[in-house]
Amino acid sequence: MTPNAFLSQLEHATRQLLLTVQTELAPLRITELNQQPAPKAWSILECLEHLNRYSCYYNSALAEALAYGGTPKREVRYSWLGRKFIAMMAPGNTKKAKTLKRMNPSGSQLGREVIVEFQQQQQHLLELLAEARHTDLDRKAVPVEFFKLLNMRLGETFEFVVLHEQRHVQQALRVKATLSVATATNQAAPVRASQAAAVSRVTSA
Predict the structure, then answer these.
(1) Which terminus of the chain is less hemmed in, N or C, by CB atoms within 10 Å?
(2) For the chain, how are helix, strand and coil distributed in percent, rounded to 5?
(3) Per-residue pLDDT for 100 more than 60?
(4) How far apart are CA 103 and CA 138, in angstroms?
């Protein structure tokens, strides 16, 4: 794939993430945003906070790598390491990855500032993607966050970051779905109780 087509896809995906969070998650009440679907499972805000922590590292690392420039190549290429991390982070991969303690926000009570930061980080990522059109995406220039002796190529790092964000925004949407089910169940309970009471009165009569 050509660098321009590759970067355009990632820009589109990032804009879709911003839109999804703005329309599907931001309107929820703060209690819903902090509600865990199960013990030790992340809330919606914890999913986004996890992404913010990674964005703080990778956006900075990408900006530093972009500062060195380079001549764009005709195609985007992948290293073995990059392919492995990308496959691991793909939203369709249902295998859970172990989260580093410093990146794990489990048990946090968070506010709407998490959503604001997420939006800011994504805007920064869009700026970096635009800047990347003028550099060599095949250059190994970005240290892996949890093992900095390993470097990923610039292009594959961008893809890894966007896939990781898609993975956890989808997780946040699944949490939202459990909230909807819980709300529907709670609303149905008084109706069932009322119906049962009505039946009881008829039977008694």
Answers:
(1) C
(2) 65, 5, 30
(3) yes
(4) 27
